[in-house]
User: Which sequence fits this backbone?
């Protein structure tokens, strides 16, 4: 009883647990955006191929990873519900149509490759190939719109800021996918993907600037946050990393390019988090300290996260090490 009472009386070790869980939420979302981002990007680049063998290679590249990568989105939703239940309820009620659209797009992206392999019929494969591209492009667009609408506290699901943010995330995933293809493929497929990746990275930078301009114009209460030194530094960081990505891809240093994308994702997620703080739901005025659960469940969740998160990270480290290196030319999806 005394141990329970101590857990209910104060945060573990006096740590700022509400702020740490706020940061953990965005870390989890960033992991999803980076890891499933290359799946989305490769799905979008699928539209540029018309050779059946190259299409099979693209599906084989993401085959071992995409379903595992989606776990991070599930963990994000679970962590949001557990740590900030009122915010979870507000977001999912305010943007419920957007949430259903994201789930539908994710379902289409997952179903399409499976159906694609069911028949050798050319028309069948063309149809499901289109479905794969649509699901891969629509999901990051809707996720970007959700995050930007969440940031500005938009009451509507259709906003200029959300649309620009969605396009920025789509461009980022294409750059991510191109870098991953650089690690996994060779020849003309890699070269073509690299060219698209460079264009996507430049487009991402332009769209980030446009999105920030839209936030500044449409959300006056966020203007002081956009002028915060950390936000300014993150914008400069984004410019530098975009240039680094372009140089790395052109120099065929794809590990560097992939690391640059990881930095771009981290910079984007950190920018949103810094601009949003101290609120966790600006539309309702809920701050991080107000929205967090009570001390006892917060401490228990922290202990569980401290145990389970390293296990999950270790699993992904093993997964990516097992399937590291270029794809064997004889491998096929399935």
Assistant:
């Amino acid at each position: 009883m005394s141990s329970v009472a101590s857990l209910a009386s104060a945060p573990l070790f006096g740590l700022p647990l509400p702020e740490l869980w706020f940061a953990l939420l965005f870390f989890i979302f960033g992991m999803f955006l980076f890891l499933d981002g290359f799946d989305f990007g490769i799905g979008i680049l699928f539209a540029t191929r018309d050779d059946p063998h190259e299409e099979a290679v693209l599906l084989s590249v993401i085959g071992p990873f995409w379903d595992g990568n989606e776990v991070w989105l599930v963990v994000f939703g679970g962590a949001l519900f557990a740590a900030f239940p009122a915010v979870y309820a507000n977001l999912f009620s305010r943007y419920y149509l957007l949430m259903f659209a994201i789930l539908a797009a994710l379902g289409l992206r997952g179903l399409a490759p499976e159906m694609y392999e069911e028949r050798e019929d050319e028309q069948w494969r063309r149809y499901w190939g289109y479905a794969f591209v649509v699901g891969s492009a629509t999901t990051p667009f809707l996720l970007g719109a959700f995050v930007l609408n969440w940031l500005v506290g938009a009451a509507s699901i259709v906003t200029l800021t959300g649309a620009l943010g969605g396009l920025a995330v789509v461009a980022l995933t294409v750059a991510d996918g191109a870098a991953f293809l650089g690690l996994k493929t060779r020849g003309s497929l890699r070269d073509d993907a690299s060219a698209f990746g460079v264009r996507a990275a430049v487009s991402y930078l332009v769209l980030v600037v446009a999105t920030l301009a839209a936030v500044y114009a449409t959300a006056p209460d966020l203007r002081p946050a956009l002028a915060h030194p950390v936000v300014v530094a993150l914008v400069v960081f984004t410019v530098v990393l975009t240039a680094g990505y372009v140089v790395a891809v052109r120099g065929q240093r794809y590990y560097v390019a992939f690391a640059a994308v990881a930095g771009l994702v981290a910079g984007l997620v950190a920018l949103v988090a810094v601009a949003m703080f101290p609120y966790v739901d600006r539309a309702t005025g809920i701050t991080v300290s107000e929205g967090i659960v009570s001390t006892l469940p917060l401490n228990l969740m922290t202990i569980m996260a401290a145990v389970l998160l390293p296990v999950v990270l270790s699993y992904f480290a093993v997964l990516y090490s097992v399937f590291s290196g270029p794809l064997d030319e004889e491998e096929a999806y399935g």
Remarks:
- Residues 16-297 form one domain.
- The chain has one domain: 16-297.
